[in-house]
């Protein structure tokens, strides 16, 4: 699969705050074992997306590193560091909001799978550490244990733009409906999940989960994946996608919820 940019124009929708029109670009790039090449490629594709009118750009999970527990310690950086400095610089140069996929982060002897988001002036807006670690064992198909090397994040991540409020998760975070519900309660109209579903979970659940989060919460959902590399030790499914819902008025579930009977709340 070749490098590509998948772009979708946001459409106005009625919410607590009207959502402005904007262009969102999802950068699906082929990740190599050479970090400097990955950074150069990401830089070029971000600039290309901005030149095509994108005001918000999102990169995939582990855009600077091969995805795998053996790679995380080798490629990990502190934040700020080489990769996040590049993200800050290109966000400022292009005047865009940049959702920096994720990178392996080292902090105080621990490793995290971390997404950084930068504003049009290059300022770091949020740092989201993957909350739910990808620990699965499908007999005969795939076994992957992120917890062998990574630590989980401990906080939710929301940032505001002139267009809408955005909630961020990473890959496996998308499987947990409660996170999307809380983001929606916080006023998010777009949920972005950089991810790297594999050839087992991708065909089965990648699109289904995005559609479910969009339908349940009546929000836009966008996912950015690495391009598929059949020679990699971990083969990503690809298929970066945007799903939307514009039926808040026709089917007003947000005002019809029985808060007297049930509720999903964020722990402080």
Automatic annotation (TrEMBL):
Keyword Hydrolase tagged: yes
Residue ranges of domain CN hydrolase in the record: 22-268
Transmembrane segments: none
InterPro entries per the UniProt record, alphabetical: C-N_Hydrolase (IPR003010), C-N_Hydrolase_sf (IPR036526), Nit1/2_C-N_Hydrolase (IPR045254)
Superkingdom as given in the UniProt entry: Eukaryota
Pfam families reported in the protein's UniProt record: CN_hydrolase (PF00795)
Keywords noted in UniProt: Hydrolase
SUPFAM superfamilies, A to Z: Carbon-nitrogen hydrolase
EC identifiers of the protein: 3.5.1.3
Catalytically driven reaction(s): 2-oxosuccinamate + H2O = oxaloacetate + NH4(+); 2-oxoglutaramate + H2O = 2-oxoglutarate + NH4(+)
Family designation: Belongs to the carbon-nitrogen hydrolase superfamily. NIT1/NIT2 family.
Name of the molecule in the record: omega-amidase
């Amino acid at each position: 699969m070749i490098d590509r940019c998948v772009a979708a124009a946001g459409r106005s929708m009625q919410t607590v705050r009207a959502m402005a029109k904007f262009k969102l670009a999802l950068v699906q790039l082929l990740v190599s074992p050479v970090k400097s090449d990955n950074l150069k490629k990401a830089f070029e594709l971000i600039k290309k997306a901005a030149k095509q009118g994108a005001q918000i750009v999102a990169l995939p999970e582990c855009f600077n590193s091969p995805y795998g527990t053996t790679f995380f310690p080798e490629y990990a950086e502190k934040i700020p560091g080489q990769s996040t400095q590049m993200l800050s610089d290109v966000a400022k140069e292009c005047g865009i909001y940049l959702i920096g996929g994720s990178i392996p982060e080292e902090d105080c002897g621990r490793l995290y799978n971390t997404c950084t988001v930068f504003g049009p002036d290059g300022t770091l807006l949020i740092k989201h550490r993957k909350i739910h670690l990808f620990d699965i064992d499908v007999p005969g198909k795939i076994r992957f244990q992120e917890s062998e090397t990574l630590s989980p994040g401990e906080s939710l991540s929301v940032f505001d733009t002139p267009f809408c409020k955005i909630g961020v998760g990473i890959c496996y975070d998308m499987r947990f409906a409660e996170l999307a519900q809380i983001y929606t309660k916080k006023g998010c109209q777009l949920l972005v999940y950089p991810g790297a579903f594999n050839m087992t979970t991708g065909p089965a659940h990648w699109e289904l989960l995005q559609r479910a989060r969009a339908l349940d919460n009546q929000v836009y959902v966008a996912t950015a994946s690495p391009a598929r590399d059949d020679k990699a030790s971990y083969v990503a499914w690809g298929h970066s996608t945007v799903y939307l819902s514009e039926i808040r008025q026709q089917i007003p579930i947000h005002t019809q919820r029985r808060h007297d009977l049930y509720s999903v709340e964020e722990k402080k």
